[in-house]
């Protein structure tokens, strides 16, 4: 598992370099907010990162359409994303203020900065 985590961090650092961002690690014991439909493999996959707070990474991940429902996001330890949505893991080293969109079974990826995410 330790080697797997090291490889994941290396991959995340490469993604940050590719898109011109500073690496901001997301520890596997911290939580993300996630919609339950992510586990169903619905596309596209959306992710955004607010500043980390408490025991969270600041990441919110959902599939398909966004919902304003109070219970849309559930807390999930990042380590469980290996089962739920491994395709998002390489992008979770991007810093707060980033968004990610993954579609077409990972063949389409868009990463961009959204500074409005820093003001929550």
Fold and architecture overview:
Strand 5 and strand 6 (108-113) form a beta hairpin. The chain has helices at 2-19, 81-84, and strands spanning 31-34, 45-49, 56-63, 74-77, 98-103, 108-113. The protein has one domain (2-113). It has 2 helices and 6 strands; from the N terminus they run H-E-E-E-E-H-E-E. With 120 residues, it is of the alpha+beta class. Strands 4-1-3-2-5-6 form a 6-stranded mixed beta sheet, with no helix packed on it. Helix content is 18%, strand content 28%. It is globular, with a radius of gyration of 13 Å. 28% of the residues are buried.
Protein topology:
Blueprint: H1 2-19, E1 31-34, E2 45-49, E3 56-63, E4 74-77, H2 81-84, E5 98-103, E6 108-113
Q: Report how far apart the termini are.
A: 34 Å
Q: Helicity, in percent? A: 10-25%
- Output the number of helix runs: 2
- Taking all residues together, what is the mean pLDDT? 93
SS content category: alpha+beta
Structural domain count? 1
Unreliable spans are none
Strand content: 25-35%
Give the SSE string.
HEEEEHEE
Question: What's the number of extended β-strand segments?
Answer: 6
The neighbouring-strand order within the major sheet is: 4-1-3-2-5-6
Please describe the biggest sheet, giving its number of strands, its sense, and whether it closes into a barrel: 6 strands, mixed
Specify the overall morphology. globular
What is the C-alpha radius of gyration, as a whole number of Å?
Answer: 13 Å
Protein traits:
single chain, 120 residues, alpha+beta, 6-stranded mixed sheet, 2 helices, 28% strand
